């Protein structure tokens, strides 16, 4: 029995499920089925949840971390939905697994925590179960779980179009020092989309070569997050987060996704760390973290 348990422990796969940051998000239309069409420049932060999977005699699922208690541990959890979806496609290889999610990202906060968790689950279980799935097949499974899951499977700078499934990976992208902040507000993404006053905005402008923080900020000044006005109307407290970040002298401040997480970009990692420390001191109950963008696939 001891030998078997040691073997099980060695077959553990752990992945970081990084926060997804919408640097720019344009709403360009809406399909007949109600899904909104988007044009978004996306990066992933060097900070996120941690997901571990290992072989077991029976399925189990545990959560920990500062936000673990806020998530359901039943079939509505995207981690379990991802496990079950992959198992349905590859039933012969899908042996029982123990899954542990360490939740460090706030819930429903506009940084793709659930979608990134689902993507990490697909990638980790594919490795654990020895599944040789094509990226397109994993993306197809991911899209069944949510529009953001396919881009989270990439985990590197990209432009996402359509409902999120039309992905253009960016070959190179600069290192962006950032601070993420969330004051604890709860925001419903469907309600935000329902509150939009305009859904036929222009797409992102053509993107030049971006090789520095300055290049990125100059480009982002020509873009927007078209969800912000609707979010602010529904949840005025999002303005408190924006103002607090603006007071740290960043290069740019913007809301990610539908909120309520906002981000600020700085010229250096040390500036981001100083800004985060200052903000944590004045807002000890907020989620605040200094991080930077991932420049290559995870």
UniProtKB/TrEMBL annotation:
<dbReference type="Pfam" id="PF00288">
    <property type="entry name" value="GHMP_kinases_N"/>
</dbReference>
<comment type="function">
    <text>Catalyzes the phosphorylation of the position 2 hydroxy group of 4-diphosphocytidyl-2C-methyl-D-erythritol.</text>
</comment>
<feature type="active site">
    <location>
        <position position="20"/>
    </location>
</feature>
<protein>
    <recommendedName>
        <fullName>4-diphosphocytidyl-2-C-methyl-D-erythritol kinase</fullName>
        <ecNumber>2.7.1.148</ecNumber>
    </recommendedName>
</protein>
<feature type="active site">
    <location>
        <position position="148"/>
    </location>
</feature>
<dbReference type="InterPro" id="IPR020568">
    <property type="entry name" value="Ribosomal_Su5_D2-typ_SF"/>
</dbReference>
<keyword id="KW-0808">Transferase</keyword>
<dbReference type="GO" id="GO:0005524">
    <property type="term" value="F:ATP binding"/>
</dbReference>
<feature type="domain" description="GHMP kinase C-terminal">
    <location>
        <begin position="224"/>
        <end position="281"/>
    </location>
</feature>
<keyword id="KW-0547">Nucleotide-binding</keyword>
<dbReference type="InterPro" id="IPR006204">
    <property type="entry name" value="GHMP_kinase_N_dom"/>
</dbReference>
<comment type="pathway">
    <text>Isoprenoid biosynthesis; isopentenyl diphosphate biosynthesis via DXP pathway; isopentenyl diphosphate from 1-deoxy-D-xylulose 5-phosphate: step 3/6.</text>
</comment>
<dbReference type="Pfam" id="PF08544">
    <property type="entry name" value="GHMP_kinases_C"/>
</dbReference>
<dbReference type="GO" id="GO:0016114">
    <property type="term" value="P:terpenoid biosynthetic process"/>
</dbReference>
<dbReference type="InterPro" id="IPR014721">
    <property type="entry name" value="Ribsml_uS5_D2-typ_fold_subgr"/>
</dbReference>
<comment type="similarity">
    <text>Belongs to the GHMP kinase family. IspE subfamily.</text>
</comment>
<feature type="domain" description="GHMP kinase N-terminal">
    <location>
        <begin position="77"/>
        <end position="156"/>
    </location>
</feature>
<keyword id="KW-0067">ATP-binding</keyword>
<dbReference type="GO" id="GO:0050515">
    <property type="term" value="F:4-(cytidine 5'-diphospho)-2-C-methyl-D-erythritol kinase activity"/>
</dbReference>
<dbReference type="InterPro" id="IPR013750">
    <property type="entry name" value="GHMP_kinase_C_dom"/>
</dbReference>
<dbReference type="InterPro" id="IPR004424">
    <property type="entry name" value="IspE"/>
</dbReference>
<keyword id="KW-0418">Kinase</keyword>
<dbReference type="GO" id="GO:0019288">
    <property type="term" value="P:isopentenyl diphosphate biosynthetic process, methylerythritol 4-phosphate pathway"/>
</dbReference>
<keyword id="KW-0414">Isoprene biosynthesis</keyword>
<dbReference type="InterPro" id="IPR036554">
    <property type="entry name" value="GHMP_kinase_C_sf"/>
</dbReference>
<feature type="binding site">
    <location>
        <begin position="106"/>
        <end position="116"/>
    </location>
    <ligand>
        <name>ATP</name>
    </ligand>
</feature>
